[in-house]
Amino acid sequence: MKKLIFIALLFWAEVFAYGQIKKQDTLKVKLGEVVVTANRIPTLLKNSPSALSLVTQSDLSTMPKTIGAEEALRLVPGIRVDNQHDGERVHISIRGQGILTERGLRGVGVFLDGIPINDPSGFAPDLYDIDWENVGKIEVLRGPSAGLYGSSASAGVLNITTNFSSRKALGGVFAQNIGSNGFYKTFAKLAGVKDKFNYGVSFSKENGNGYRNHQAFWGNKFYEKITFRPSGKISLTQIVSHSGYFQQNPEGLNLRQLSVNPRQANPDARPFNEYQKTNRTTLGITGIYKISPKQNIRAYSFYRTWNYKETSNKCAEYRTYVYPGAGIQYNLNLGYGKIKQHLSFGSDFKWQNIKIYKLQSAPNPNRIESTDETNIETNTLLANQIITQQSIGLFSIYRIEFGKFGITGNIRYDNILNELNNKMMLGDTAKTDMNFSRTSFRLGTSYSYSDALTFFANFSQGFIPPSTEELAANPTGYSGFNTHLIPATSACYELGTRGYVGQDIYFDVTAFVMKTQNDFFRFKQSGRGNQEVFYGNAGNSRRYGLETYISAYINKNSNLEIAYTYSDFRYTSATVDPIYTNPRYVLTTPPAAGQYLPNSPKHQLYVQVSCKLNKNLNLTLGSEYQSKWAIYTAAKAYSGKLNPAIFRNWQKGFNLFNARISYRWNLKSRKAEISLSARNFTGVSYMAFTEPDPDGNSYQPGPKQEYFAEFKINF
Comparing 583 with 477, which gets the higher pLDDT? Predict the structure, then answer.
């Protein structure tokens, strides 16, 4: 903390060293003018009845390398992003929901230009489809929102909008980024407007070696978006997205390996060539039809295909996905004097078919390290199965505004069907069905004391059925569902306020308490390989939290932003399933009452100062602090009753410092920018991610100093 104070003093010295620059309009968002749509109905930010953060394009413009979600969301309180690799394979949790997901996001709804990323079970596999260089805005709805979006929003929502706005018939952007550990990214975008069409297309290619051995990655992304407005009543937006991504997996290290060389890969990773590869295409269309000035219909549909491969020291797993979906929503707006009312109802539909087979792996001790995709697969078939899923959600939203008060209520019913057909078995035993349904609701109110101050209160529910990944990870065999799992449900109460102090300070503060029944925990067992991670119902938990965001002008050229999160997340009871008595399950027993949830630091703080040194030169300084956190859920490991040389439950926190300086100028009629960025420039050793592991391979070290340079030109 002393180092944090020292660096903060340096920030202030930089800030007050320059005093002749005008304020940046992009740093100030007028509360009464911002409209958000994450609540499924257009609502002024000041009237939002729940915790909601807005990430603008000016915030995103300070990202050092534009490929990490942790960069885009660093100034959002209540959210934690674990970037366990140097590419884009991340874990995201909001208020502790989804902290133990093996890959992707569980319970966090993700929408890209109105098209959902989550599958029918609520699981979002990754964020490869999102090119952060091309994002214009992110709305983050924090807290359970199952009453709005079902199981995919049990923790919250990321509503992401791309930026293809242009006033020209043809314009565009070219950007080249290079950096430490062999990183480069090339990005190009064309966009324009012609008559009734707005169009845009982007492509990016990225590559890197990673900061650890066997951590190389590459990615290619294509995104095309066309909006057509044939009349004042109809607007249609067509989207085509394609993502190809390859990422080596160095796996976690144990304490001994960590002390010898934190940059090494786990000894299994290289000879088995452990990696993940994704090839995914999405076709989507969204539209709005204005029946009258007070009525409209919104709809979306999409079709997604995906080929996926993952190798481990146990098997090579192949998956083929086919995933269509659609939704429709009717909106009615009524206003009589000072009373305004809004009524919506609609439905979401999703289907998914997954073909999975697994072949036993074998090592190649003579393998020469490279980014090739070769691995040795035997003829031993470990699994051959088909998973089919479908979900339907029916919802209704009502909002009334009278004077300074606003009340919003919504209710939703979800039905999720899962079936697994094991092609290695015959008869009735070949099929497993796991079906879940739930009605969830949310009620919130807001009171605008003045144009600059709003208070809100909210009650919301979460519905978290076992997702695709949790169901498909069967601890009793290499195929079939985990039939021991049941849905988790949560109830959350929150109070908050947002507004301005004078003309220079914006604040957003939310306090909440959330209780969850049948919470999930994650465990591994010996003898199944690093790929096999399993899930059980831990019992109940309760979570207290405080989320604070402050943006303040220091003087007419400088802006200070602070995002602070306080989290006290603990299990309150434990359940015991007979499955956990199996001696092979080394770290299986559920957590005991009183244990802290893993991967949940009590304190998270991000401080950022932006200074405009002159009309062309900008400086950004940032500091990220996280306090210590627990690693294990198993009671014996948590309490230190297992070998401390292998199982050290508490991971110490860290404090990282970042900097970015950019120079902008006009190149004839074009705008150009060059920037230099430094991440963790003080060289702190820290853990980017920790996870339970029966062999103690729980540690994913983060990178020390990293440096990046970018050249960008708009034309």
Answer: 477
